């Protein structure tokens, strides 16, 4: 049986990168796969969080999933901390993961910054917890943005190492699904950095909850170069900011970058930005309206998360029991 697992951290509000690189793809995949979507609150702890804000963000990300089109009747939606098997399997897998594999992870280097000695152990071990998130459900497919490719390769390596060590095909090797035109949306302020929730500048990203005026302001302030839009998509290669805005437009419009350029070639960015604002507002306004409606009944969100946690726990606990039997951990 094919099963997908994916998640987002409740670190601030979701942005256009999360939506175009992952969430939108989840919505179309839920028809083909048994789907498990997590709000990965334990991952959020790898950097300092305010407890009340973390709690609020967990509910808001849940609302964003549902508002974007994830059906809580058909899919399992829950928060990671509610299913203890994630943490238990993370420990077991960390004992099967050479430190050399983790030393290669580029996200740790970026997030730890200059003072690596002060970074939390959890930030370093994060990819092992991510492997556990996926493997505890024996998920076969993992739809993510391009930035998670390296972590997913590590999850495959860990699964393969476990299978070889215990001489059985227990874990399927999870397939990354990096889909669509916008697998790596870049910051609006710097075309060489990815759009991130953790970027301190709110002008670097468009949040799913931004209103029309905020979207207009952010797009107007977005960095570009003085050249007009080119005729050919290849001519965007050395123009990261221009490339990013055209990528966002084409992904939102569901057309190729070349089709977008066929409409705007030769125009200045000021005109194109107006069209981009209109499109972004048209696509995001229904999501934020629905999010606001859902957030007005927190009890209902908590109910959905509770039902999801029960379903997730049933699968995860059974797999964890098998894993304990395989490795010789007594279950009295
Ligand atoms: P943080 O800065 O806290 O790490 P984030 O913006 O990177 O936040 P995550 O919660 O880490 O978001 O990632 C959730 C999902 O969104 C993942 O599948 C990730 O690959 C995807 N994603 C994140 N940023 C982008 C982006 N800029 N473009 C495309 N996909 C993205
Ligand atoms: Mg991230």
UniProtKB/TrEMBL annotation:
Its main location: cytoplasm. The keyword Aminoacyl-tRNA synthetase applies. Pfam families: tRNA-synt_1b. One of its GO terms (biological process) is tryptophanyl-tRNA aminoacylation. GO terms for cellular component: cytosol. Its EC number is 6.1.1.2. It catalyses: tRNA(Trp) + L-tryptophan + ATP = L-tryptophyl-tRNA(Trp) + AMP + diphosphate + H(+). It is found in: Cytoplasm. L-tryptophan binds at residue 133. A motif ('KMSKS' region) lies at residues 194-198. GO terms for molecular function: ATP binding; tryptophan-tRNA ligase activity. Keywords: Aminoacyl-tRNA synthetase, ATP-binding, Cytoplasm, Ligase, Nucleotide-binding, Protein biosynthesis. Homodimer. Catalyzes the attachment of tryptophan to tRNA(Trp). Belongs to the class-I aminoacyl-tRNA synthetase family. This is Tryptophan--tRNA ligase. It comes from Skermanella stibiiresistens SB22. The gene is trpS.
């Amino acid at each position: 049986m094919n099963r997908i697992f994916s998640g987002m951290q409740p670190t601030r509000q979701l942005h256009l990168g999360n939506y175009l690189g992952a969430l939108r793809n989840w919505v179309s995949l839920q028809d083909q796969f048994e789907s498990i979507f997590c709000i990965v609150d334990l991952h959020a702890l790898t950097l300092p969080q305010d407890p009340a804000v973390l709690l609020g963000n967990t509910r808001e990300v849940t609302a964003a999933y549902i508002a974007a089109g994830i059906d809580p009747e058909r899919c399992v939606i829950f928060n990671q901390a509610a299913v203890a098997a994630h943490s238990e399997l993370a420990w077991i897998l960390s004992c099967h993961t050479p430190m050399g594999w983790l030393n290669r992870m580029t996200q740790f280097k970026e997030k730890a910054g200059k003072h690596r000695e002060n970074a939390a152990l959890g930030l370093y071990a994060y990819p092992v917890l991510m492997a556990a998130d996926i493997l505890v459900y024996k998920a076969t497919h993992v739809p993510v943005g391009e930035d998670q490719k390296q972590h997913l390769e590590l999850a495959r390596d860990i699964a393969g190492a476990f299978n070889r060590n215990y001489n059985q095909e227990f874990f399927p090797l999870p397939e990354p699904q990096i889909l669509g035109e916008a697998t790596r949306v870049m910051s609006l302020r710097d075309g060489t950095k990815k759009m991130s929730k953790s970027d301190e500048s709110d002008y670097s990203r468009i949040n799913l909850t931004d209103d029309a005026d905020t979207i207009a302001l952010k797009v107007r302030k977005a960095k570009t170069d003085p050249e007009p839009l080119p005729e050919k998509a290849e001519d965007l290669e050395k123009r990261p900011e221009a490339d990013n805005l055209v990528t966002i437009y084409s992904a939102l419009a569901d057309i190729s970058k070349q089709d977008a350029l066929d409409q705007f070639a030769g125009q200045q960015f000021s005109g194109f930005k107006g069209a981009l604002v209109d499109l972004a507002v048209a696509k995001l306004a229904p999501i934020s309206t629905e999010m606001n409606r859902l957030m007005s009944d927190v009890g209902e969100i908590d109910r959905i998360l509770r039902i999801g946690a029960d379903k997730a726990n049933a699968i995860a606990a059974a797999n964890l029991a098998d894993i304990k039997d395989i490795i010789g951990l007594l279950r009295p």
